[in-house]
Amino acid sequence: MEKYAGRYTNEMYGVAVVSFKNGEISLNIVGLGWVEKLDYWQYDTFRATWRAPEREKSFVTFTLTPSGDVSTLRVDGLADFVPVLKEDAGVCGGCGLMAMGIQSLHPSVSYWFCGT
Fold first, then answer.
1. d(CA 61, CA 95)
2. Count of other CB atoms within 10 angstroms of residue 95
3. Is 13 within a domain?
4. How many distinct structural domains can be found in the chain?
5. Can you tell me the distance from the alpha carbon of 5 to that of 68, in angstroms, rounded to the nearest whole number?
6. How do residues 82-101 score in pLDDT, each as one tens digit?
7. Within-domain flag for 27
């Protein structure tokens, strides 16, 4: 399960962090404040039961490359996230504030953002 741990990104929802600690895997969709332990379902699929009762249970599936690296993190009913390859600090071109740059496996999801 350690192979799933890491940072992922989506243009609309921002960063998602998958952590593996003490034999448990968890997902934190930072921009939405969604945090939950993932329960193994089958193959590369897990079940998330969100803490907020208004959210439905979701399947979370990792798509792997032929070499076994994660290429996509899919949260059913929400979005697909791609792995973050590199993060750098810089200046946002829109407002001039400090920003975080993200480079992912998919060029369309490489961007700078400052949160404003």
1. 36
2. 10
3. yes
4. 1
5. 13
6. 998 755 555 555 555 545 55
7. yes
